[in-house]
Amino acid sequence: QKMSTVPGHTWFQTPDGIEVNVMVKRRPDQISVEVAGTDPSPRIVVRVHAESCAGEAGAGAACTCDSGPATCSYELWGSVVPSSMKVEVLSCKVEIKLAKRQAGEMWPRLEKGAEPPAVVKPKPAKNWDKIQDDE
Q1: Closest by Cα among 67, 68, 79, 76 to 9
Q2: Which residues have CB under 8 Å from 67's CB, separation 6+?
Q3: Who's near 15: CB < 8 A, 6+ residues apart?
Q4: Cβ atoms of 96 and 19 closer than 8 Å
Q5: Can you tell me the mean pLDDT for 108-123?
Q6: Can you say how many angstroms the Cα of residue 52 is from the centroid of all Cα atoms in its chain?
Q7: Distance between terminal CA atoms of the chain?
Q8: E strands, 14-131, where?
Q9: Cβ atoms of residues 97 and 90 within 8 Å
Q10: Strand pairing of 17-22 and 9-13?
Q11: DSSP SS3 for 128
Q12: Residue 99 CA to chain centroid, in angstroms?
């Protein structure tokens, strides 16, 4: 039976680069990562060369899993330098580091198609000076 899930991922950025952590538990010989596509729509493609993939669904990414390998693709918000990619496969995640093509640019989110995070507006501060004692 074919199933579609997306491994959980986190990301952060500096003015010069991004780091994406894809939560998959595999050995280094079971993972391959590449930057596919060209500007303006580069993608990080993570291939899991083992049975199934595990994780929570995430926004915007595509992953197809069945009894064979899994492929997860993240369409990036901005341009990156593919030759700068550094990948480290750890016991519980894959760390992917890439330099941004436009240094100093801050991305509003990792992926183009992903919804931006909801903005939570703080409640207005209580003005304790306006509260009157009824006594």
Answers
A1: 76
A2: 51, 52
A3: 100, 103, 104, 105, 106
A4: yes
A5: 72
A6: 20
A7: 72
A8: 17-22, 31-36, 43-48, 62-64, 70-75, 80-89, 94-100
A9: no
A10: antiparallel
A11: helix
A12: 15
| Residue 100 one-letter amino acid | K
Give 3-state DSSP helix, strand, coil % of the chain, rounded to 5: 5, 40, 55
Can you tell me the distance from the alpha carbon of 72 to that of 4, in angstroms, rounded to the nearest whole number?
A: 10
Provide the token pair at 108. 């509003």
Tokens 């939560």, residue located: 23
CB 94 within 8 A of CB 22: yes
Q: Where do we find the tokens 């596509």?
A: 37
In the block, tokens 């006594």 appear at 135
Entry pTM = 0.66
Q: pLDDT tens-digit profile of 52-105?
A: 444 443 444 444 444 346 777 888 888 999 999 999 988 888 899 999 999 999
Task: Provide the token pair at 39.
Answer: 């500007």
Q: How much is the mean pLDDT over the chain?
A: 75
